[in-house]
Amino acid sequence: MSADPRAATEAVTIVLGTSIPLQAYLAVAALLFCTGVWGLINSRNAVRVLMSIELMLNAVNINLMAFSDYLDGQLIRGQVFAIFVITVAAAEAAVGLAILLSLYRNRETVDMERFNLLRW
Amino acid sequence: MTLASTIQQLCFLVLAAVVVVGALGVVLLPNIVYSAFLLGGVFLGVAGLYLLLNASFVAAAQILVYVGAVNVLILFAIMLVNKKENLAAIPGLLLRRLLSGGVCAGLFVLLLRVAFTTHWALPGPLPVGEEATIRIGEHLFSDYLLPFELASVLLLMAMIGAIVLARRDVYSSDVITGEPVDQGLIEKTRTPLLIDPSAATAAGAQPLLETTP
Question: What is the pTM (predicted TM-score) of this model?
Answer without folding.
Answer: 0.81
